[in-house]
Recover the amino acids of this structure.
């Protein structure tokens, strides 16, 4: 039955005058688990706890887990996502850097036979060390809700590892996700570094209201399927990245100028080499895809720093 006229909500615009004072919306209460743990979100660690159950389910679905899978979760937090992963995967290695949260997680999952908790900075643990500590081995996959400040180094940590995962499902800042999944015309240094090792796809966006406390930006979930070998054939990955950094050193400038400044070469020499490689010197760095960068790299190999120097700047 349709509501009576008196029961119907007002259709007046937001600017309509009301005799009542506007009510302030109270901030969302902290998650029950955070209260139970006697903790609060730590801004220094970029902690924003995902509380939307629908989003949690979509993340787990995107991982395509089976009882035979081993999954490494980065940033276990309050264990909300951890619990869902443990229901579907054969083995879960949950990594958390916050000692207070680690204590809560130990209590929460003390009876979980298929879950191992590692209290450490993920960057201090190789995938091989994580798997060995949990009594398992590759293959494995990664699921993570990454703090924005650590997203790029964590992705590199896994993609460049001696034992990389078969796939990663990660939540990062929306702009970062779009940059990673972008094609030529909107490429970034981070996008190229991820696409060298894997095929990224932006799955869906997540509003700030899905977290406690709410961040100031939207997030997005990416799935990255890792390649068996790098997308382009280059003789030295470190020197290739050194060349990419030179190209992106001044992204608003024409590529001939950026490479000239980055490598200390004369502009006319750079333009000549680029033309010889079939790349327009007037383009900007974001216009090129991996294949074109590989071609340019080979054209400038003799002008690049040695391997040791390239590694020091990496």
């Amino acid at each position: 039955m349709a509501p009576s006229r008196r029961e119907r909500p007002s259709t007046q615009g937001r600017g309509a005058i009301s005799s009542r004072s506007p009510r302030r919306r109270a901030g969302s209460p902290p998650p029950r688990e955070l209260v139970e743990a006697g903790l609060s979100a730590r801004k220094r660690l970029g902690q924003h706890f995902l509380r939307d159950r629908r989003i949690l389910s979509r993340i787990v679905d995107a991982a395509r887990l089976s009882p035979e899978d081993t999954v490494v979760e980065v940033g276990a937090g309050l264990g909300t996502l951890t619990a869902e992963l443990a229901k579907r995967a054969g083995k879960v290695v949950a990594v958390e850097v916050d000692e207070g949260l680690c204590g809560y997680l130990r209590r929460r999952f003390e009876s979980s036979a298929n879950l191992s908790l590692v209290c450490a900075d993920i960057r201090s643990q190789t995938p091989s060390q994580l798997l060995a500590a949990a009594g398992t081995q590759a293959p494995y996959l990664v699921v993570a809700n990454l703090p924005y400040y650590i997203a790029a180094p964590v992705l590199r940590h896994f993609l460049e590892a001696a034992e990389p995962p078969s796939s990663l499902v990660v939540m990062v800042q929306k702009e970062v996700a779009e940059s990673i999944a972008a094609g030529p015309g909107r490429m970034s240094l981070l996008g190229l570094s991820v696409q060298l090792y894997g095929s990224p796809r932006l799955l869906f966006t997540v509003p700030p209201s899905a977290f406690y406390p709410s961040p100031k930006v939207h997030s997005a979930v990416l799935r990255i399927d890792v390649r068996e070998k790098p997308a382009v054939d280059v003789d030295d990955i470190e020197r290739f990245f050194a060349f990419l950094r030179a190209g992106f050193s001044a992204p608003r400038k024409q590529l001939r100028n950026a490479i000239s400044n980055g490598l200390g070469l004369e502009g006319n020499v750079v333009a000549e080499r680029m033309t010889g490689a079939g790349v327009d010197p007037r383009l900007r760095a974001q216009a090129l895809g991996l294949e074109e960068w590989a071609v340019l790299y080979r054209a400038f190999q003799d002008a690049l720093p040695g391997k040791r120097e390239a590694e020091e700047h990496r």
In short: The chain is about 35% helix and 15% strand. The longest helix spans residues 53-63.
